[in-house]
Design brief:
With 438 residues, the chain is an alpha+beta fold. It contains 13 helices and 17 strands. It has a five-stranded antiparallel beta sheet with strand order 2-1-5-4-3, sandwiched between helices. Strands 6-17-14-11-12 form a five-stranded antiparallel beta sheet. Helix 8 (246-266) packs across helix 9 (270-284). Keywords: Coiled coil, Hydrolase, Kinase, Transferase.
Length: 438
């Protein structure tokens, strides 16, 4: 299509009857019919090159190769509060920079400009005549002659005060978020401690060790354990895992621990203890937000005739305990068919009983250990029950503290692959001193 002369000049439709050009200042309706209006408008479009340079919305600076200022525009002079004669031939560009800016200019900016011939978007600070600082973004290019020899340096400076204010506010917000996160982490850690026993009961003739591995410092986990005295000569122990994380899981964990201890005092039979817990959780959390847990409860009774302890275990959907014998044999204590606690009104509880002889060690754990992610080998991504059994076999015979230390080191090797909290509780019947010396 053809183009009118007005369009070539960038003012299509202006000055002609019915024109639709939009210009700020009252000429948006195309009413430029008078010669005076057209003359005034034309004058606005005919800025001189010098005026465009002097009053550009950015600072312009030309320097000799040694950095002496040869030319500067009015915009930059206004920003800094200098007269033109204060700078031309008397100051170097680096003289306008702060101390840190001068060091950066000498060690990085100028050498890079010399090698590349151009440096773009460098954040520096200028020092104004009154001592104030002006953040700017600096772009410099080296102008060369026809023979390729450098002649002078042209520099463009953009006012970065708004950007600096934005970055400062962003940094402030980030620090505030970090402080808030630290506060929440302290709160989560404090809450987590209240869900675990400060110390475990001292059981004569038994060594005990426990460890809690936190997968995330930002959330409270739902794993729990305890060992506590019951009637004279008996002790109760439990270890479990509440579904979910956070405050809701912490509330269920607190209720679960309290109920287990109270139910064991009322009737220490492990099957009865878990049935009482199931009734409480099913009653409290059977609405739109059901809550449940897996748990294993044990009743410890000393064996005065042969030494060691008898232990009866009841499981509600929990991973089986590991028994590491004094002779080195190791295997799971199966509790098949135990159902999650709190889901059904009448959950099936699986029980088993075993004697812990001198030198034996029993390990209870939550599934955060066996479900940890490991480097995929043969298509296996989770650590798994079989791997844990093989690992335990390398430890046996062992002690409670040695077992827990080994599990702690194992979890550390998984790193971020442990995405769920893990609790372990180990009990060990020491050999008589005469056998330990053999």
């Amino acid at each position: 299509m053809g183009t009118s002369g007005d369009e070539e000049n960038g003012v299509a439709g202006l000055g002609r009857p019915g024109g639709t050009g939009q210009v700020a200042g009252g000429w948006g309706n195309g009413d430029l019919g008078s010669s005076d209006d057209r003359a005034q408008f034309s004058a606005l479009l005919e800025d001189s090159v010098e005026d465009l340079y002097e009053h550009a919305p950015c600072g312009y600076l030309s320097t000799l190769l040694d950095g002496r200022i040869a030319k500067v525009n009015t915009t930059l002079l206004d920003w800094l509060g200098y007269e033109r004669d204060d700078l031309l031939g008397r100051r170097h560009f680096s003289d306008l920079l702060t101390v840190g800016g001068r060091l950066y200019h000498e060690t990085h900016f100028a050498p890079l400009l010399g090698m590349q011939g151009e440096v773009s978007g460098i954040a520096l600070e200028l020092k104004a005549a009154d001592g104030s600082r002006l953040p700017v973004l600096v772009t410099s290019t080296v102008r060369t002659g026809r023979d390729g020899r450098p002649l002078l340096i042209r520099t463009t400076l953009f006012d970065a005060r708004d950007r600096r204010a934005y970055e400062t506010e962003l940094l402030r917000a980030r620090k505030e978020a970090e402080r808030e996160r630290e506060r929440l982490q302290r709160l989560a850690a404090t809450l987590q401690k209240t869900l675990l026993p400060p110390t475990l009961a001292n059981v004569p003739g038994l060594d005990v060790s426990a460890y809690y591995h936190i997968a995330s410092v930002d959330e409270v986990g739902g794993d729990f354990y305890d060992l506590f005295p019951l009637a004279e000569g008996t002790w109760g122990l439990f270890l479990g895992d509440v579904c979910g994380k956070g405050a809701a899981a912490a509330a269920v964990t607190s209720l679960t621990r309290y109920t287990l201890r109270a139910a064991a005092v009322y009737n220490p039979d492990p099957d009865a203890v878990l049935r009482n817990l199931n009734t409480v959780l099913n009653h409290e959390y059977n609405g739109a937000d059901p809550r449940f847990c897996t748990v294993i409860f044990g009743l410890l009774t000393p064996d005065p005739d042969r030494g060691g302890f008898h232990i009866t275990l009841a499981s509600g959907g929990h991973p089986p305990a590991l028994l590491m014998r004094a002779d080195g044999t190791t295997d799971y204590l199966p509790t098949p068919g135990g159902q999650l606690i709190g889901v059904l009104a009448d959950a099936h509880i699986a029980t088993t009983a075993v004697r812990l002889a001198p030198g034996d060690t029993l390990l209870l754990h939550t599934d955060g250990l066996t479900e940890a992610h490991v480097n995929a080998v043969d298509g296996v991504d989770r650590y798994g029950d079989d791997a844990l059994l093989d690992f335990a076999r390398t430890l046996a015979p062992t002690t409670a503290s040695a077992t827990v230390d080994a599990i702690r080191d194992l979890l550390d090797t998984f790193g971020s692959g442990v995405d769920d909290d893990t609790a372990v509780l180990a009990i060990h019947v020491p050999r008589p001193p005469s056998e330990e010396l053999q």
